[in-house]
Amino acid sequence: MTIPQLLLCLSLSMLCISSKPTEKKDRVHHDPQLSDKVHDDAQNFDYDHDAFLGAEEAKTFDQLTPEESKERLGKIVSKIDGDKDGFVTVEELKAWIKFAQKRWIYEDVERQWKGHDLNEDGLISWEEYKNATYGYIL
């Protein structure tokens, strides 16, 4: 190997070693958003209502009077207070929010299942999936 070839190999090696990766990878796992609404407590509490109650339950609260809303929220707070000490801790609140989100996921899975199980036999065949997803006729 001649000196120019050696210098070329050495410079290419240094270039590869010192170059920064072009693709930035996010190494932090981010939890999904609790609501698709904007989180701005200065304007409204829609995001908080979705996170706290679940999207479907939050819709029903939008149609209640303030008195009815307060009464129903009081009942929900009693459910959140796991140790029944009259106070809601941060951990109890986190557990409730996770419960509400999981409940929504399970309800959505059930709805999706029913939408794909076209012959209602409790199983989804490839034909049923293809028909329900891509709109093919049975």
Automatic annotation (TrEMBL):
Cleaved signal peptide residues: 1-18
InterPro entries: EF-hand-dom_pair, EF_Hand_1_Ca_BS, EF_hand_dom
GO molecular function, one term: calcium ion binding
Keywords: Calcium, Endoplasmic reticulum, Glycoprotein, Golgi apparatus, Membrane, Metal-binding, Repeat, Sarcoplasmic reticulum, Secreted, Signal
Primary location group: endoplasmic reticulum
Domain EF-hand: residue ranges: 68-103
A GO cellular-component term linked to this record: Golgi apparatus
Subcellular localization, as worded in the UniProt entry: Endoplasmic reticulum membrane; Golgi apparatus; Melanosome; Sarcoplasmic reticulum lumen
Family named by the database record: Belongs to the CREC family.
Protein name (Swiss-Prot/TrEMBL): CALU protein
Organism of this sequence: Geococcyx californianus
Gene name in the database record: Calu_1
